[in-house]
Amino acid sequence: MTIVMAFHRSGMRTFKDFYTLIVLPYWGKAFPNLVSYSRFVELMPWCLMLLCCFLMTRRGKMTGIAFVDSTPIEVCHPARAHAHKVFKHQVSWGKSSTGWKFDFKLHLIINERGELLAFRLTPTNTDDRQPVPEMTQGLFGHLFGDGGVHQSKAV
Questions:
Q1: How far is Cα 67 from Cα 13, in angstroms, rounded to an integer?
Q2: Identity of the highest mean pLDDT range in 53-57, 63-67, 122-126
Q3: What is the rounded CA–CA span in Å between residue 154 and residue 143?
Q4: Which of 28, 117, 128, 153 is the most exposed place for a label (fewest CB within 10 A)?
Q5: Cα four-point dihedral sign 37, 38, 44, 46
Q6: Chain CA centroid to CA 96, Å
Q7: Contact assessment for residue 119 and residue 108, using Cβ atoms and an 8 Å cutoff
Q8: Segment 74-99, tens digit of pLDDT
């Protein structure tokens, strides 16, 4: 997870360049069991699962006020989607106001302090309302979203 997050903060255009030019030659002491680039790419879907597990331990406190929204997470440029292998079975095509995308959709519920209460990662063609009932299990109070305010015993 650390290497993947470092890539996104690095500003480099491709993960392959980052891994082969930065990680392999210079980060060997920090990561003594580094694998080849192709093996690392095969292991990357596990990184997503581990990140989700980690986020489950960092959840905030329910205060009775929550906000729900979703945002796309681009996997690769649409022109390269046919050759994409890393998240091949988890990602799908979807259309947005800016055109066709090949990505995930991240659904979040946060409290008024910005603390994470719930999240789901779905294919991009998932309706924004579809994961909300499952995400709100155990939450209470007011839930604010694009469609207005919703209130129930367990939002």
A1: 33
A2: 63-67
A3: 10
A4: 153
A5: negative
A6: 18
A7: yes
A8: 766 566 555 555 565 566 666 666 66
132: CB partners within 8 A, 6+ apart? 68, 107
How many percent of the chain have pLDDT more than 90? 27
Tokens 């015993």 map to which residue?
153
Domains of the chain, by residue range, sit at: 2-56, 65-152
CA–CA distances in Å: residue 19 to residues 23, 73, 107, 125: 5, 21, 29, 31
What pLDDT sits at residue 54?
A: 82
Amino acid 77 reads: H
Q: Which two tokens stand for residue 96?
A: 């947005």
Other C-beta atoms closer than 10 Å to the C-beta of 77 total 10
pLDDT score, position 20? 95
Place of tokens 């979703």: 70
Give dist(CA 85, CA 81) in Å, integer: 9
